[in-house]
Design goal:
Protein name: Pyridoxal 5'-phosphate synthase subunit PdxT
Mean pLDDT: 94
Bound molecules: glutamine
Shape: globular
GO molecular function: glutaminase activity; pyridoxal 5'-phosphate synthase (glutamine hydrolysing) activity
Catalytic activity: aldehydo-D-ribose 5-phosphate + D-glyceraldehyde 3-phosphate + L-glutamine = pyridoxal 5'-phosphate + L-glutamate + phosphate + 3 H2O + H(+); L-glutamine + H2O = L-glutamate + NH4(+)
Number of strands: 14
Structural class: alpha/beta
CATH class: Alpha Beta
Strand order of the largest sheet: 3-2-4-5-13-12-11
Largest sheet: 7 strands, mixed
Low-confidence stretches: none
Pathway: Cofactor biosynthesis; pyridoxal 5'-phosphate biosynthesis
Radius of gyration: 16 Å
Organism: Ornithinimicrobium avium
Distance between the termini: 5 Å
Helix content: 25-40%
């Protein structure tokens, strides 16, 4: 029998719906660590930037000394998944951000904050997402003051749209959704991310498989 340890995925825990992501990742087979300090980034196979308020996540990440180390890990190829405010944090450019707002960047896209307008601040949509397991089953996507991708470069793969709006993307090991899969009771987005983390782990860490 070959035994392998589960991948270790961090959840940036400065603000936002951290607990729901921790639970969804654990259900998807990952070991999870909440990250509030730079040293807690060490040894991770992936990182989730949760939804919440991107201006607050940005400000606290900089105060806690996490901004530069997370930027460096993104550029070094660590798998990172950003949901809603987390998607904003992974965008190279943002529209309707605060004047001094910064992002980790990494995905060659321009994201507009709060793009779906006040009258539909929150809504749910059944999305067709071919990249997920059982793609014929629509994903119950919950949008809460959600951003949308306005422009993206050729290296960015579009995973889902609502009408014409791009709401889920992947670029290499970086994954981002406008919506909140952690509150939907459907773990297929987290399962996709854990698979990306497993592939990265296998590529960068020598396998210590014990045969018995
Ligand atoms: N649910 C969310 O994460 C909302 C994101 C929020 N509108 C922002 O700009 O950060």
């Amino acid at each position: 029998m070959v035994t392998t340890a589960p991948v270790l995925v961090g959840v940036l825990a400065v603000q936002g719906d951290v607990r729901e992501h921790v639970a969804a990742l654990e259900r998807s087979g990952a070991a999870v660590r909440r990250v509030r300090r730079p040293e807690e980034l060490e040894g991770l196979d992936g990182l989730v930037v949760p939804g919440g308020e991107s201006t607050t996540i940005d400000r606290l990440a900089r105060i806690f000394g996490l901004h530069e180390p997370v930027r460096a890990l993104v550029r070094a190829g660590l798998p990172v998944y950003g949901s809603c405010a987390g998607m904003i944090q992974l965008a190279d450019q943002i529209l309707d951000g605060h004047a001094e707002q910064q992002t980790f960047g990494g995905i060659d896209m321009t994201v507009r904050r709060n793009a779906f307008g006040r009258q539909v601040d929150s809504f749910e949509a059944g999305l067709v997402v071919p990249a997920l397991l059982e793609p014929e089953r629509p994903f119950p996507a919950v949008f809460i003051r959600a951003p949308r991708v306005e422009h993206h470069g050729p290296g960015v793969q579009v995973l889902a749209r609502v009408d014409d709006a791009v709401v889920a993307v992947r670029q290499g090991n970086l994954l981002a959704t406008s919506f909140h899969p952690e509150v939907s009771g459907d773990d297929r987005v987290h399962q996709l991310f854990v698979r990306i983390c497993c592939a990265h782990h296998a590529a960068v860490r020598p396998t210590v498989a014990t045969a018995s």
